[in-house]
Amino acid sequence: MIIRKYNSSDCEQISRLFFETVHSVNAKDHSPEQLDVWAAGTVDTEEWDKSFCEHYTVVCAEGELILGFGDIDKTGYLDRLYVHKDYQRCGIASAICDELEKAVSVPVITTHASITAKGFFEKRGYTAVREQQVIRSGIALNNFVMVKKI
Questions:
Q1: How far is it, in rounded angstroms, from Cα 118 to Cα 120?
Q2: Are 69 and 110 in contact, with CB atoms under 8 Å apart?
Q3: For residue 97, how many other CB atoms are within 10 A of its CB?
Q4: 3-state class of 15 per DSSP?
Q5: Average pLDDT score over residue span 55-72
Q6: What is the DSSP string of 77-141?
Q7: With bands split at pLDDT 50, 70 and 90, how would you rate the model's confidence at 72?
Q8: Where residue 41 falls among pLDDT bands split at 50, 70, 90?
Q9: Domains of the chain
Q10: pLDDT the model gives residue 42
Q11: 10 Å Cβ neighbour count for 137?
């Protein structure tokens, strides 16, 4: 298992990992309608690739298989952090998060954590500032704005 920088060729596999993870791991906390608007099964891979290339993005891989990925921007906004549905609770999210947090020189890191991920971030020292609702295709998704002072 290695943590390495993102390559554009990773985007297709990452988009599948994202869909499968959301629809399995997050299913205990969200309705099928919420899961469908969060991860519809299609992402604009050109748009995602552009975003990943603009951010500091890493993947955790074992051979050709991507086990997880995450990205953070220069302002300290930790945008995405997902681990393959079959590799949950193996330390992958922590390893990726460690790498992302070290990559920026800011006093505070911010993320918008799902209810499923909230406990993970709390254990890492993040504090929930507020709960918010995001509306996608008329469906409400709740998440938590969380911060960690570095």
A1: 5
A2: no
A3: 23
A4: helix
A5: 97
A6: EEEEEEE-GGGTTSSHHHHHHHHHHHT---SEEEEEEEHHHHHHHHHTT-EEEEEEEEEETTEEE
A7: very high
A8: confident
A9: 2-105 (3.40.630.30)
A10: 85
A11: 8
